[in-house]
Design goal:
single chain, about 160 residues, alpha/beta, Mannitol-specific EII, Chain A, about 45% helix, about 20% strand, globular
């Protein structure tokens, strides 16, 4: 499964406004709740926030990957946002975050969820790719960047 296959333009936001980690996560969850794959918004929120309590998903280099597994989705849901301003995300490297990739997996589909987390982490580990994502783009252009980057890293 490719990231660019699960990201849709309605779930990608350049310039997402928010001042705190909680505001950003809440805004993304509110927006993904419109997806027909989301069966229960509050269960999704709880899964994401429960995972966040274990350890911050701000993994460093300006990137966070809030994620969780729940029966409140019918299939994997992904969303990506570039925040308008850097936010304090309590990241592992203590640096602010601007790139947020939210992933919600179905609780009985652990394998695909872990593979996608790994793929996202690998793509986002590349400094040049992160820099390009920070440039002004439309949602469609961001998805195209993911497609191009995946093509250089993975067999399709």
């Amino acid at each position: 499964m490719k990231i660019s296959d699960i990201l849709t333009a309605d779930l990608v936001w350049p310039g997402l406004e928010g001042k705190t980690k909680e505001e950003i996560i809440d805004q993304i969850i509110e927006r993904i709740a419109a997806s027909p794959k989301v069966l229960d918004r509050e269960k999704v929120r709880k899964a994401i926030l429960d995972r966040e309590k274990i350890m911050s998903t701000g993994v460093g280099n300006g990137f966070a990957i809030p994620h969780g597994k729940t029966d409140a989705v019918s299939d994997i849901v992904a969303a990506f946002a570039v925040t308008a301003e850097p936010i304090d995300y309590q990241s592992l490297d203590e640096k602010p975050v601007r790139l947020v990739f939210l992933l919600v997996g179905k609780d009985n589909l652990v394998g695909p969820h872990i593979k996608l987390l790994s793929r996202i982490s690998r793509l986002m580990s590349k400094e040049e790719f992160r820099r390009r994502l920070l440039e002004p783009h439309t949602a469609a252009e961001i998805i195209e960047l993911f497609k191009q980057e995946e093509a250089t890293y993975f067999e399709v």
